[in-house]
Amino acid sequence: MDITDVRIRKVNDEGKMKAIVSITFDDEFVVHDIKIIEGQNGPFIAMPSRKMSEGDFRDIAHPLVSETRNKIRDAIFEEYEKVLAQKSAEIEADSAE
């Protein structure tokens, strides 16, 4: 299964949740609402989840093997870094004017 598209849908500068991501597999299957969260040990991805009646959260969709989770994480962070670099370049261009 190949990752064919990663879209950073929303980027937040403030707070722990830094972005919301959609990822497409084989141009046929998409997973929305993956979150990039700033944790104590750096950013990590959180798969889409639902709050249960007990108050805890349970993933709606998630990879079953760590190799797949790493592949998803790497693709997401690669695209996220591009978005941050573009945003930074736009800020620099605006301040230069």
Q: How would you describe the overall organization of this protein?
A:
- This protein has 97 residues and is α+β, with helices and mostly antiparallel strands.
- The mean pLDDT is 91.
- A hairpin with a 5-residue loop joins strand 5 (49-51) and strand 6.
- It has a single domain, classed as Stage V sporulation protein G (Arylsulfatase, C-terminal domain).
- The radius of gyration is 15 Å and the shape is globular.
- A four-stranded antiparallel beta sheet has the order 1-2-3-4, covered by helices on one side. A two-stranded antiparallel ribbon has the order 5-6.
- The longest helix is centred in the last third of the chain and has 31 residues, at 66-96.
- The chain contains one helix and six strands.
Give structural attributes.
97 residues, alpha+beta, Arylsulfatase, C-terminal domain, 4-stranded antiparallel beta sheet, 1 helix
- Give a quick account of the main beta sheet: strands, pairing sense, barrel closure: 4 strands, antiparallel
Distance between the termini: 45 Å
How many domains, as an integer?
1
Provide the low-confidence segments as ranges.
none
Morphology: globular
Strand content: 35-45%
- Assign the CATH topology: Arylsulfatase, C-terminal domain
- CATH architecture assignment: 2-Layer Sandwich
Give the topology string: H per helix, E per strand.
Answer: EEEEEEH
* Helix residue percentage: 25-40%
CATH H-level homologous superfamily name? Stage V sporulation protein G
CATH class (first level) name: Alpha Beta
Strand order of the largest sheet: 1-2-3-4
Oligomer: single chain
List the total number of helices: 1
Structural class: alpha+beta
